[in-house]
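My current task is to audit a protein record that another person submitted. What it holds is a sequence and that sequence's fold in token form. Thanks in advance; the entry in question is below.
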Amino acid sequence: MNVFWGAFDLITALYWLSIVVLWFRFMKTIPVFGVTDCSYDEAIYPSLTVIVPACNEEKSIEQAVRQLINQDYPQLEVIVVNDRSSDNTGALLENLKVQYPQLKVLTICDLPSNWLGKNHAIYQGVKEATGEWLLFTDADVMFSPKSLKKTVGYALEHTLDHLTIAPDLYYGGVFYRAFLAYFSFAVTATVMLTKKVGVGAFNLVKKSVYNEIGGYEAIAMKVADDMSLGTLVVNKGYKQGLGLSGKGFITVKWYENLFIMLKGIEKNQFGYFNYSVFTTFGVCLYILLVSVYPFFGLFFGPMWARALCSISVLSLFAVYNRLSKLIDISRSFVIFHPISALLYLGAVINSTVKTLNRGGIEWRGIVYSLKELKKYSI
């Protein structure tokens, strides 16, 4: 048994060393956009349509729309799709239309079958779009001045077909920020391995490419619509880019606290694994073995086994040290890594059990059957 665990400790240590080295190389290739960056003022900008789906977004919609409308982008169209809101979102949008005649507001009262609400709202917005490029964003995302020029200019300079940017997040308490650090590393490491990415806060894509890949009709029932769009782009052979938002460039308050965040991501997690119990089980086992076990292994077994586990933990410390320079976390949050991993594991298991028991997912009061959801695998 000692031989088995010794071999496993060695494999885990080598695994983390290789993953971290690859991750550092990968992160060097990702641009960080800042509010003080030089803009691409000499560029000839294509027309751009920003599409914002909004369902009960009265707290943020007014500020978000104003920041978009007040961008200095030369050929800008903003379309907000009011998707069956029951709060004051509709009234706020009507007031904004009076102030900004260039703002287009679409109102959806009913959701057709075989569509998720947000996906359908974006689909309807695209039908009215006139821009050569499309930007899909959320109603609580805030844009700094010139951010559209900078991002479109970057996409043009690097001949991209799709550019997605991870936003700057407002942060909460220690455990929340520690979980965000874990989540950020997990996502970037996954992107590094799969070469496919999409972020709901900022998905910029050529309209011609959007049409070629089948658009939102192809992902009508995908709960992770942002990642699904990015996957389609890469699968069809188009060029994709990922960027990070520096402080204040593109910002969003994702969730109020850690508990709400875990509840919020719960609905998506089983869907990320294409509703496969086998795949989900494999992911859970992987998380336990590589993200939790090394921390416990520091305190058990012979010294050489503990030393191997320490290599894994020190490799992760290097990751958190790098992340502390990018987002508002401390490198010491590495000690919360196994706790964050277990919390994520709980969200995955909860998502799987609830989806299977319910026979589907519940989103904004509507239950979507698992049978229909599985039809839209990519």
Observations:
- The longest helix spans residues 2-28.
- Residues 2-26+260-374 form one domain.
